[in-house]
Amino acid sequence: MWDNVYIMDHPLIQHKLTIIRDARTGPKEFRELVEEVSLLMAYEVTRNLPLEEVEIETPLCRTKSKVISGKKLGIVPILRAGLGMVNGMLKLIPAAKVGHIGLYRDPETLKPVEYYCKLPSDINERELVILDPMLATGGSACAGIEFLKDRGAGSIKLMCLIAAPEGIDKVRKHHPEVEIYTAAVDEYLNDHAYIVPGLGDAGDRLFGTK
Asked: DSSP of 14-77, one letter per residue?
């Protein structure tokens, strides 16, 4: 349906996502599951990293084997909900550097407002993955992508748990080269710009706030 959009339908991801959606799931279990799903999704996000051949010595002999070819990675969560996805990524890619983008959605205009941005100094040399559990209107994602581009980033991917068609369309329109990785594409946005059926407010459910 969309170019550069990858929907991950692995049974483990879908099973855990169902529990994440359930209103009865408390903050502790919610955090653990978001971390687990992020780790599983990271496998697919990093699938196309370049490899090179090196020579090593096993307990039996010398042989040639493959390693990641010097590609530096950066993880950039959009605060605050994106924080819940960081540890899952770092378990798989512990050498990645982590930047942070702080955005909030103006309740009247629904447009993103930046309040914080701290990034690795060498983002132009890194493949960056923006983390945000919910791709709703696409406003925060597009703003985050713009911030990275303005600061010299050249390779950017977006990873979310759930996306709305409206959010995907907006990112595709403004940043068609950015690959989007999601575990589900839901039906629509309601009048308050929440994804339906969705999972509610990801930040509140992660941190037990309202």
From this structure: HHHHHHHH-TT--HHHHHHHHHHHHHHHHHHHTTT--EEEEEEE-SS-EEEEEEE-S-EEEEEE
Residue 16 has, within 13 A of its CA and on its CB side, a CA count of 21
Mean pLDDT value of segment 82-96:
93
Residue 6, SS3 per DSSP: strand
Residue 125 φ/ψ, nearest 5 degrees: -100, 0
Task: Name which of 116, 107, 106 is nearest 82 in CA terms.
Answer: 116
pLDDT in tens, 168-197: 999 999 999 999 999 999 999 999 889 999
What residues are labeled active site? 105, 109, 201, 204
- Please report where in the chains the tokens 């653990």 appear, as a residue: 32
Residue type, 210: K
Examine the pLDDT at 1 and tell me if it is beyond 80. no
| Interior angle at CA 45, CA 42 and CA 46, nearest 5 | 85
State the average pLDDT for the chain.
92
Using CA atoms, how far residue 76 sits from 14, 42, 81, 97, 127, in Å, is 24, 13, 12, 9, 11
Judge contact between 158 and 132, C-beta under 8 A.
yes
Is the entire prediction scored with pTM above 0.85? Answer: yes
In this structure, what token pair is assigned to residue 5?
A: 């959009």
